[in-house]
Structures are given as structure tokens and as C-alpha cells.
Amino acid sequence: MKRPGLIALTVLLFTTAALRDAVDDWIDATQLPLTLAETSTEIRDRSGTLLRAYTVGNGIWRLAPQLDKVDAGYLRMLVRFEDKRFWNHSGVDLLAMLRAGAQAVWHGRAVSGGSTLTMQVARLVEDGSTGKWAGKLRQIRLALALERQLSKRQILTLYLTHAPYGGNLEGIRAASLAWFGKEPQRLTQGQAALLVALPQSPESRRPDRHPTAARAARNRVLARTAQREILPQNADETAARSPLPDRMRPFPRLAPHLADRVRTAALDQLKIDLTLQAPVQTVLQELVGDAARQAGSRVSAALVAANHRTGEIIASVGSPAYDADQGRQGYVDMTQAIRSPGSTLKPLIYGLAMDQGLVHPDTLIHDGPVRFGRYAPRNFDGQFRGDIRIRDALQQSLNIPVVKLTHELGPARVMAALDRSGAQAALPGGAPGLAIALGGVGISLQDLVQLYAGLAQGGQGPLLHVRKDAPPQSGQRMMSDVAAWQVSNILSGLTPPPGAPAGVLAYKTGTSYGHRDAWAIGYDGQHVIGVWMGRADGTPVPGAFGADLAAPLLFEAFGRLKHGFDPLSPPPPATLIPGSAALPQPLQRFRSRNAHFTQSEDAPALLYPPDGAQFDLAGGPVTMKLRGGVGPYLVLANGRPLVSEQYNTEFDIPNPGAGFSTLVVVDRKGRSDRVTIRLN
């Protein structure tokens, strides 16, 4: 009798072990669906705030959540309501399944479910059904496999990623953003209960379409969790009276043009962090939209704001409306469009002329008829002002003086300085001509902001960037700090728009030929903002001027950006700040080198140091040797005077400092010569 019983027990144990091993092998062979990793691409600001998200396949909103950024009260409510033994079972809760089966037999219908959260995840990721035993068996297998391959936190994260919440919403973040307009980090008890109830019947409980069913389902969750002491006393009654959302809110669409660009450049990244500041982007985006609507039905507008100390772009508005207003062609990103800059390049030209020793802000220049070959520039009003200070010529944005300076510098030098600043410009064709001073070149709004960031930073600023992970880079020096400050000082003296404070911004306006583009770009001690207004198709806006259309928007943008203005930089120590009468004679009046004489043997020539020389002087003086010219001589290094009233042709000048220096000698008749050297 004992022997057959022992044999039977052995067979039973062996069969049980074999069955267990077979089940283990069956579970281990389960392959997890590939959809586990398919979530929306997110563009975020510097603090992680969502700027824009993109749908996944079939137009589904599915944003990847993080457990530590989901409301803890909601998580407790979810687990207690759906799967109270979630943290202890291995994927299948036998007690819950037995209870559900017994209730179904007793009532003749399904009263409660036996599915665990893990089984629900299995159904969601495979998009399978639960109505047939084959589907239920498949879910059990996948649930057991999930528990073996993933942690409980990972499984819960999958549920929070794939659970349906009505329409094309999947996951807790998409649901919270669409129904409540916020991330799920802090939810009210009523909001949390609705989000627990929705996945069980997401379409029939949609609060915007079936508010009665949604309220009943939410209140059942509140009542049950109150019974289980998840909620404080009477909290369920208060939450049950809270209103339901009556519509789906649109997902954030901040800086949509910029978001499209960075996403296209990094298609393999699901989360891209930018330097933008979402609150600033929001208010400036609204401001640009309001300004464009007030300006006319087809007028578009764009804005770029940056921190010129760090190079971080903090706001980028490509148009008043991304795709809602076809008349404005809002889909065109006007921060990147190549347009004529009008007069906005004039500060660069004046700064280069000061740097080369051609002029000083108090130098007199003649504003009168002039012709360069077949090119005869005219001022915008057709008037001439005679002798006028450089400062006033720039502030009044006169055309003739700046063309004269461009002729002296050479258009190629202007284009080279523009390139050194980090900005890129496109020429309509061939070599640059004198017309570049008046807008005869193509440039984008963002590149103009790059140029002005360099001016704000003393002639050499950081390269603008929008990726938070981008390493900081500096542009090349385009002019000396003295020349850059002198330009800034002149621009800060411009009369502001009516009602705006004076002397707080160094800014310049511009209007392109035919009133096609209205510009205003300015900076204070920390930020630079550029504004463009016009029509995206390039047709004229009759009567539009930068000073009238764009400048008020520029000042309003600074007012929305922050409270107050950061003070502009003080003058560098070497800055020469006299009146016109106190200037060295060659700088008292601008004369073209070819106006009254031609370069001859009598013109000054720098014999020493030779152009391109490199010296190790350890801070000592630099010896200069001249030939020709008429004293007294003026010597400038990088635009700042070092020696004046010098009659000798061999003398020492103070060491201008380590690095590259451009030395300019100017004689009494305004003739000059220059060399570039490097001191170590």
C-alpha cells in the first residue's frame, strides 16, 4: 500500500515541477511589444516646462511620465481603487479573480473586475480584448512576463503612459494637460478621481460629452477611496461637488516654429531642452499677436529675445499665429526669413569707422550731394543738412554720411565684420557694394539680433544658441570696446516712442525700400530684442516705418520681459569724450582720403612696425617709425587715441595690450596709414 502511494506522490511532484518549468519557459519566452517605447517628442524650456509636443502614430497624444512628477495622492487612489495588492502580487491577483468570479455567479453579471494593473498594462500595450478566454490568457501570460522583466515602478509607469483617457489621449500627462491644462504633479482630489475613473470607459465617461456618466464614475471612486481611508474625512463630499472640465484644452504650442526646427535637426531625440523661458515666451507671443492684428489684416510680425551676456535665446516668435491665420501666412518663420535690414546695419558701419580712426562721435561730416560713379545716395526725406556731427547723423539715420564711411572702409570690410559677429548675410548678387549701408543685403532677424548682441557686449559677444546643452561659443571681435561703447552711447540717445522711457535702451530702427520691412532692435545691460513687422510675402505695407510700427513693440517687449531696465555698460577707460573743438585736428572733420588729394609720396607711411609683425614686449612700449605726412600726427590703437600732437617721425607709444592691435597714424591733412600687429 505504501509503495503505490509513494509512486503516486512522486509522479505528482514530478508532474507539478515539469508543469511549473513549462509555465516558466512559457512566460520567459514572452516578447514584450515594441510599442512600449513609443511616446511623443517633447520640446521643453530651460526649467523643463513643456513648450510643444508632437503626436505619435495615428495622431495619439502619449507623453512619457515620471513617477516622481505625478501627484502622490492620485497614485494612492489609483492603486487602492484598481489593484490594492499591486505591490505584492506577481502580475495576477488570484484572490481578486476568485472574488470577481463568485460575484458574477451570484449576481448573474460582472460586478467587479479581477484584472490587476499589470494585466491592464498587458492589454493596453498589445491593444487586445478581454472578452474571450484566449485574450484573457494572453494578458495573464504577458502580465507575468512583465512582472519578471520589469520593476513595479516601471509597470506603473507603463500604465500611466498607455491608459486611455478619451479621444486621442493616452497616459496621465496627456490627460491632465488636455482636461485640466496642467501637468499631473499637483491634482485636486476631484481631478485625481476623474483620472482614475476615465480609463475604465474612456469614451462613455468623457466629461465634455457625457458629464453625467463622468460625474457618477468620479464620485464612485471618491466614495470607495473614502471608505478605505485614502481621503481625509468629508473630503469626498467636497470633491464630489467640484466642477468637471467641459472641453479638451489645446496642448501647449509655444515657439512652434522654433520647435519644428530643433525637432527636424534632432529626430532621434524624444526630449529636447531649450534655453527659452516659457513664461516670457507666452507673454511675448501674445504681444506679437496683438501688435500684428492692430497693424492690419495681412501684417505679420516676429521677435527674438536673448541674453547677450550668455548668448541664450529666451524667446522666439516666428509669426503672430502659427497656422490659424492664412492671410498673414503664419506658417512662415520670419525670424529666419532673409529680408532687407534697412538702416539697421548703420551702427556697425559707424563703429568700424571709429575703430579705424576715421571719425569720432563728435567729428563733423558733410551731408550734401555726393556721387560715387553712377550711384548718388539720397536721404530718406530728400533734404541735406550740411555739416553735422557723426552722433547726430547716426541718430537721424541719414544716408549720405554712412555711404561716405562705407566707401572709405570698403564694403568688403563691412561684410567681414558682419561675418565675425556671427551673423550671416546674403548678397543679392556679386560683390558687396555701397548699397549695403542702406539695406542692400539680405539678413534674418535672428542674425541681426546676433550682431546687436556683439555691440552690446563691447564688440565681441557670444554666439546665440537655443539648445540648453549647447556649449557656449564666442564670436570674433568685430570692433574695439571703445568703438562699440561709442555706438551704444549714440543709440541710447535716440528719442523713444511716445510714453516710453528715455536713455534706457540703445536701439535702432530701420525701414527697407518700399516699406516692405519695419525693424527695431535694441539692448540694455543684459538683454537684446529684435522686432520685425511686415508682410510675409514681401509686398509693401504702405506708410509703415520702423520707428512708428516696430519701435513701440520693442519697448513694450522689454516691459513685458522684466521689471525695469538693466543699466548700459560704462565707457571703457580709454574712451575719448571731448567736444568737437577738443578733438585732435584730424578727427574734427571727416574728409575722404581722395577728396582733396591723392595718395602720394608725401602721405604718411608706417615703416615700423611692419604689418603682420609679432612681438614679445612684456608690456613695454611700441616703437613707431614714419615717413612722409605733415605733423602733428595722431596714433590710434584699436580705435582709441594713444598719442596726439606728435611731430617726430620716430617715437614710442604705450603698449596697447596683448593680442592683435590695429595701429593707425593720421597726419594733419587727414591722410593715414595702418598696420596690424600681434603682441604677446
Automatic annotation (TrEMBL):
<dbReference type="GO" id="GO:0008955">
    <property type="term" value="F:peptidoglycan glycosyltransferase activity"/>
</dbReference>
<dbReference type="InterPro" id="IPR001264">
    <property type="entry name" value="Glyco_trans_51"/>
</dbReference>
<dbReference type="Pfam" id="PF06832">
    <property type="entry name" value="BiPBP_C"/>
</dbReference>
<feature type="domain" description="Penicillin-binding C-terminal">
    <location>
        <begin position="596"/>
        <end position="677"/>
    </location>
</feature>
<dbReference type="InterPro" id="IPR036950">
    <property type="entry name" value="PBP_transglycosylase"/>
</dbReference>
<comment type="similarity">
    <text>In the N-terminal section; belongs to the glycosyltransferase 51 family.</text>
</comment>
<dbReference type="InterPro" id="IPR023346">
    <property type="entry name" value="Lysozyme-like_dom_sf"/>
</dbReference>
<keyword id="KW-0808">Transferase</keyword>
<dbReference type="InterPro" id="IPR011815">
    <property type="entry name" value="PBP_1c"/>
</dbReference>
<keyword id="KW-0121">Carboxypeptidase</keyword>
<keyword id="KW-0328">Glycosyltransferase</keyword>
<comment type="similarity">
    <text>In the C-terminal section; belongs to the transpeptidase family.</text>
</comment>
<keyword id="KW-0511">Multifunctional enzyme</keyword>
<feature type="signal peptide">
    <location>
        <begin position="1"/>
        <end position="20"/>
    </location>
</feature>
<dbReference type="InterPro" id="IPR050396">
    <property type="entry name" value="Glycosyltr_51/Transpeptidase"/>
</dbReference>
<keyword id="KW-0732">Signal</keyword>
<dbReference type="Pfam" id="PF00905">
    <property type="entry name" value="Transpeptidase"/>
</dbReference>
<dbReference type="GO" id="GO:0008658">
    <property type="term" value="F:penicillin binding"/>
</dbReference>
<comment type="pathway">
    <text>Cell wall biogenesis; peptidoglycan biosynthesis.</text>
</comment>
<dbReference type="GO" id="GO:0006508">
    <property type="term" value="P:proteolysis"/>
</dbReference>
<dbReference type="GO" id="GO:0030288">
    <property type="term" value="C:outer membrane-bounded periplasmic space"/>
</dbReference>
<dbReference type="InterPro" id="IPR001460">
    <property type="entry name" value="PCN-bd_Tpept"/>
</dbReference>
<keyword id="KW-0645">Protease</keyword>
<dbReference type="Pfam" id="PF00912">
    <property type="entry name" value="Transgly"/>
</dbReference>
<dbReference type="GO" id="GO:0004180">
    <property type="term" value="F:carboxypeptidase activity"/>
</dbReference>
<feature type="domain" description="Glycosyl transferase family 51">
    <location>
        <begin position="60"/>
        <end position="224"/>
    </location>
</feature>
<dbReference type="GO" id="GO:0009252">
    <property type="term" value="P:peptidoglycan biosynthetic process"/>
</dbReference>
<feature type="domain" description="Penicillin-binding protein transpeptidase">
    <location>
        <begin position="302"/>
        <end position="525"/>
    </location>
</feature>
<dbReference type="InterPro" id="IPR009647">
    <property type="entry name" value="PBP_C"/>
</dbReference>
<keyword id="KW-0378">Hydrolase</keyword>
<protein>
    <recommendedName>
        <fullName>peptidoglycan glycosyltransferase</fullName>
        <ecNumber>2.4.99.28</ecNumber>
    </recommendedName>
</protein>
<dbReference type="InterPro" id="IPR012338">
    <property type="entry name" value="Beta-lactam/transpept-like"/>
</dbReference>
